[in-house]
Amino acid sequence: MPPNPPVMSVRDLRVAFGATEAVHGLSFDIHRGETLALVGESGSGKSATALSILRLIEREGGQITGGTIRLGGTRPANITSLRASELRALRGDRVAMVFQEPMTSLNPVMTIGAQICETLSLHRGLHGAAAREAARAALERVKVPEPAQRLNQYPHELSGGLRQRVMIAMALTCEPEVLIADEPTTALDVTTQAEILRLIASLQREMGMAVLFITHDLGVVSEIADRVVVLKDGLKVEEGFTADLFASPRADYTKELMAASPRLGEGAPVPLDNPAPVLQVNGLTTTYGGGLFARASAKAAVRDVSITLGRGETLGLVGESGCGKSTLARSIMRLVTPSAGEITLLGNRIDGLSRAALKAHRSHIQMVFQDPYASLNPRMSICDVVTEPAFLHGMVNRTDRKAMALDLLARVGLPADAVDRYAHQFSGGQRQRICIARALSVRPQIIVADEAVSALDVSNARRITDLMADIQKRDGVSMLFISHDIAVVERVSHRIAVMLNGQIVETGPTDRVLHDPQHSYTQRLLASVPRVAARHTPLRVAGAHPVDA
């Protein structure tokens, strides 16, 4: 078989942000019909490489300082030397990109139809009814239900999974030669993730396009990638066919990534023996919408939920996006007001308390959110950030705040010099540690962690969950751990509750629920979990082989 020339070749790519070089001499090829995965921790250079391929890195303050990025095929092009007008013609036509968070990538004030038609007008010269019909067909191709109606909707009216399908539809409208998928499933639950991955794979087979898949999820890599490039601090440390690399990784860093990656079936903490309850929820219902004159339009996001959390116990809460997990957490925190039911915190009913009366109880239960950067005030020093809850509750005075901050930062493994810095000066994993330190400042009995590690790479996620486990053992803190990553939930949870359409459909000790699931929905969830395994059969495209940097 004659060699298959690459559809894209990256040679000795160097990318810098000011005086700091983020990518150091990276080289790789991608062939037609092949999926190449770029993996590595946050800051390894994955996204900088992707943005460089589309020459979007300049918009982020970066610059390509060396190397070449070439497109092959019948119209060869050196992307690194194209003019602005040539780049506009190339983006979305020959090379397209799907980003991690579709809500920030889609225009919130334009309908879905208008955004797809804009791409068709620019690259295919379609307008009016012809463009609209092509847009409808594009949504139908990616299996968006009721595509004609979706054309008139805005991004906020769609679920996360549907928004990602819209992004894929837009990216594939012009049938690109290369699709760059930058963490496209990180924020999705396992069933939606499985659907998106199957969709990308089927469209790839149909169109014969090459896919550059950027992710920190090795389970996803082992299922979809033909070859893998491992990056660390902007350097390629290993490259190879997926099955070969997973069976016998050569680089120590690759071995560390695999060791940190959660695997379903590794075992769960031993259930506690009848711990005293610190939180009891009975018949909780939370309704959105409706109102005094529109009761028929009201929707129950949480319906008749009852759970118990014991002292020093972790209860894992799992389920698809939109099932009501976060609403349940926010209802327990009384950040939203339940419509019915009882919430008993440390023996006190809090469901009917006024906002003023709640203040005395808020120190007992604290929340750690998914996005640590959005949770931290960028104008406040870390000293003020981590001690603010304690200061507001009168547990520390102004003169003692720095001493408390130093103690809290030490407890979560951050250096003392962090105390006078600001949130933007820290990595995602470090910012999440700061959020945990802040929650600990009031010595809570319960921490609610709402997707607290879903946006982190596997190494940082492991460090954060290990930290939370250490805090629990040391302080006896109880945790409600919400996540769509069931392997992570298994590692940290004594018990699991499975949520579907606002209701708890199954609950029990973690090992029992995961190894002998009783409900069909739990069984479907578990079947969708990607497994880290060397069982993928590589495409072995003729001519595809590891490239030396």
TrEMBL record:
Q: Sorted alphabetically, which InterPro entries does this protein's record hold? A: AAA+_ATPase (IPR003593), ABC_Ni/Peptide_Import (IPR050388), ABC_transporter-like_ATP-bd (IPR003439), ABC_transporter-like_CS (IPR017871), Oligopep_ABC_C (IPR013563), P-loop_NTPase (IPR027417)
Location relative to the cell:
Cell inner membrane
Q: Name one GO molecular function term.
A: ATP binding
Gene Ontology BP annotations: peptide transport; transmembrane transport
The protein's matches in CDD domains, at most eight in alphabetical order, are given as: ABC_NikE_OppD_transporters
Q: What is its main location?
A: membrane
What does UniProt give as GO cellular component? plasma membrane
Q: Which NCBIfam families match?
A: PRK10419.1 (NF007739), PRK11308.1 (NF008453)
Q: Which PANTHER family match?
A: DIPEPTIDE TRANSPORT ATP-BINDING PROTEIN DPPD, OLIGOPEPTIDE TRANSPORT ATP-BINDING PROTEIN APPD
Task: Return the protein name.
Answer: Glutathione import ATP-binding protein GsiA
Q: Identify the species of origin.
A: Pseudosulfitobacter pseudonitzschiae
